[in-house]
Amino acid sequence: MFKTLRNAWKMPELKKKMIFTLWMMAFLRIGAIIPAPGVNPDAISIMMGAIGDNNLLDLLNVFTGGGFATMAIFAFGVGPYITSSIVVQLLTIAITKLEEMSKEGEDGKKKINKITRYLTLFIATLQGSGTTLLLYNQQILVQQTPMYFILTLLSFVAGSMLVMWIGEQITTKGVGNGISLIIFINIVASLPQTAATLRDSEMVIAVLVIILFIIMIAFAVTMALGERRVTVQYAKRMSGRKVYGGQTQNIPIKVNLAGVLPVIFAMSLIQFPEIITNIFIRNPNETWLTIIDNLRWTTPIGGTIYVVLIFAFAFFYSSIAFNPVDIASNMKKSGGFIPGIRPGKPTSDYLSKIATHITLLGAIFLAILALTPVLFQAVLGMPVAFGGTSLLIVVGVALETVKQLESQMLMRSYKGFL
What we know:
This protein is mainly alpha-helical. The protein has helices at 2-9, 12-31, 41-51, 55-63, 79-94, 96-102, 106-137, 146-173, 178-188, 191-200, 203-225, 261-280, 286-295, 300-321, 324-333, 345-370, 372-379, 388-412, and strands at residues 227-234, 237-239, 242-244, 248-254, 336-337. It contains 18 helices and five strands.
């Protein structure tokens, strides 16, 4: 990876893109530090301390590079954009008009992106309103007036839209996928805090954590690169005096088709009652507090529900990302077949069976990585927000960015025939 970065730095065009990406990342880090106008930083620290350990809030704080804990301008990061992208992707499958639009090429892609941006604005306004209402109820604003309420809300919404724009600019003018790199740099920014926690702990615990961290990295790399390749044979056909086809290709089926989305969705759903309680309910009764305590993922009941939700979302999203019926239909039209399997429905059933087995294995991997922070906290007594989910994102983005750099370097160093 470092060799690839060093070689890319020697190419003037790629060097310019890398410098642009670094400048954008530096700007994002500045925005994650500056508190939003109208917010009292001292009162925010007191409120976060009173909330205590909340796994979803800790994960949001990691994904925003610490901006959520300080209620900075970029407090929501790329969260609204990611949510709107997922919603649009699901609606594309459910709504025929959107599905047709997505198949219109570049023009259709622009229309889908436009819808995604408008939905991002709506979700950012919704999240900003809920967060600002929480700050207003907790008397966190500098002054409890409508003007400061609107000022804080507009700051959060504008910050989310600016982060979305920066991500698109990095994708266009920089290196790699801008949205993924923003999440990457925000997660990496939490490493110094984790290192400080290790430094203050006992030597034996620190060594165990480092060993476990190395094992997790290897596990995450294996999971990110793991795939099942299904061999596809194309029949030979005569066109004029030429013979076409007869080649053998592979259909790669990723072990982790859904990425980290099942973990994020499961954590959001299991923590949703607690967040709603903190925002809207000032004096909850004892029964409701007991239910919330049992839903925490550190408890046996909450942990079981958490794992079940991860499996459910993993199978749900994999069924959307991988469509065996369409693949089998396209193979049949192009004269392709899987050796030993008849074209048509038998092929789709065979691919569906493989995808189910692969998804089950990927869900088990995701559950192991997601429960790693619980092991840190229960066995070693170290609450570490930088867990398996964050590590999987970092590894995936790093591998994807290096691949893009290598492909661009190969394209620019191709010598041709002479």
